[in-house]
Amino acid sequence: MRTVDLILRKRGGEELSVEELQFLVNGYTSGDIPDYQMSAFLMATYFNGMTDRELSGFTEVMMQSGEILTLSDIPGVKVDKHSTGGVGDKTSLICAPIAAAAGVPVPMISGRGLGHTGGTLDKLEAIPGFRTDLTLDQFRAQLKELGLCFIGQSDEIAPADKRLYALRDVTGTVESIPLIASSIMSKKMAEGIDALVLDVKVGNGAFMKKQVDARRLAQAMVGIGRRLDKKVQALITDMNQPLGYAIGNALEVMEVSQTLQKAGPADLTRLSLELAARMIFLGKITSTLDEARKLAEDRLMDGSAYAKFKQVVAAQGGNPQALDRFELLPNATGMREILSPRAGFVSAIMAEDIGRASQMMGAGRSRKEDVIDPAVGVILEVKIGEKVEAGSVLCRLYYTGEENLDESADLVEDAFRISGTRPDERELILEVVG
Ligand code: URA
Q1: What is the pLDDT of residue 32?
Q2: 277-292 burial, b for 16+ CB within 10 Å, e for fewer?
């Protein structure tokens, strides 16, 4: 088998067999297939998609590229949550401690920022000392003891996705239904969970811009879960503006801390509670979804979710005091305000441009080897529907270097639309699949 022949066939729209996909995935993971050939294959897949058979085969081959964990010695229904990627999306750091405080064991394997979107691992690593590179034995032990552990993808779990994820990030091949579905499901199905809650984002800050595509992505992932005998439920949620007000790793950790202390933004709190409720329900802690919603709210309100998060931060080497004393988190050295050019109502905020600007200032990567700057990002002062005056502050950019600052500021300035009439209220949770 020759890699170039498989690329040509994929480029021509032909279906590849499971053996051929295995050859590509294993060859790339072992280093026998170089980045340039895999990039060509990814781009051909981006344009031509995959059949259902290819998607199942590709996902299983990626899943089998590493160890498949068994967590059956840990009592309870193990449930994880994953998002397809958004801007300001820090719900994992809120819903996971809520669900764990309600008694659900949550083994969470998370990803890094991808394209213009942030990643849970990069956010956690903004907490001084926090380690996401635990061994699988440490992961298991912490899950047993605290009911929650966050780790990054190692070379042990779905290593093929780890390598492909980094390659897609820098080759313009992220926004593809089969590539996103196989990436998420291969690592999630390898981590030994019983159930999974997915947050499929749709809108200008998501990889899926149209609801019909988000639905297809959700159905693809729910279908993969079903074939592997796992309960998977997906919420399709609005990403036509950043979630919450903070974008950028340490800034988002601050907002997580506020939200876990009941002082978070309404949209972020609402979505995190709903995701936690779905985790609690799939985790069979309650017999109805309404009971699960009530329990999630109780665990947020009684402070036990925040206490759980602090325990987990300490257990993974992080300084839990940084969650109360933000001066202990990485802080930016400069700040620039973006002002409204006119009076009116905020009618749109192009979340992708805000994410892109934040990435350009150092919050994300544009090359695989780039190192993240945890301190930088954007804090919105307004959200869609709010009234603004000419010259009032729309948002603040926090930076540590001036290299891409002007370009980022231009991007952010153009991201706001101000109109004469108040826009209609928008739904946050649009659909449930599965
Ligand atoms: N999250 C992932 O893990 N993979 C993707 O491709 C997109 C979001």
Answers
A1: 95
A2: bbbbbbbbbbeeeeeb
What does the pLDDT average to over 295-321?
A: 98
The per-residue pLDDT of the chain, averaged, comes to 94
Q: What is the pLDDT of residues 383-420, one digit of tens each?
A: 999 999 999 999 999 999 888 999 999 999 999 999 99
C-alpha distance across the termini of the chain, in Å = 38
With a cut of 70, say whether residue 71 has pLDDT above it: yes
Whole-number Å distance, alpha carbon 193 to ligand 1 midpoint, is: 18
| Window from 15-24, 163-172, 268-277, 366-375 with minimum mean pLDDT | 366-375
Distance CA 377, CA 335 (A): 10
pLDDT value at 343 more than 90 = yes
Whether 301 has a pLDDT exceeding 70, the answer reads yes
CA dist., res. 189 & res. 184, Å (int): 9
Decide if 374 contacts 249 (C-beta within 8 A): yes
CA distance 165 to 162: 5
What's the DSSP call for residue 72? T
For ligand 1, atom 5, name the residue with the nearest CA: 180
Domains of the chain are: 3-48 (1.20.970.10), 79-323 (3.40.1030.10), 330-419 (3.90.1170.30)
> Is there an atom of ligand 1 within 6 Å of 111 CB?
yes
| Residue 183 annotated to the active site | yes
| Interatomic CA distance for residues 243 and 235, integer angstroms | 15
Active site residue 155: no
Choice from 63, 122, 174 to test ligand 1 binding pocket (greatest atom count within 8 A of CB):
174
Locate the ligand 1 atom nearest the alpha carbon of residue 119 and give its number: 1
Residues 394, 381: Cα–Cα separation, whole Å: 5
| 202 Cβ inside 6 Å of ligand 1 | no
Catalytic site residue from 65, 92, 154, 183: 183
Query: Using one digit for the tens of pLDDT, what is the confidence trace for 365-374?
Result: 766 667 889 9
Rounded CA-CA distance 134/82 in Å is: 19
φ, ψ of residue 209 in degrees (nearest 5): -85, -25
Ligand 1 test: best mutation among 45, 183, 189, 197, most atoms within 8 Å of CB? 183
Q: Which two tokens stand for residue 421?
A: 């009439």
Q: Which residue shows structure tokens 């605290």?
A: 146
Report pLDDT for 368: 64
pLDDT band for position 211 (50/70/90)?
A: very high
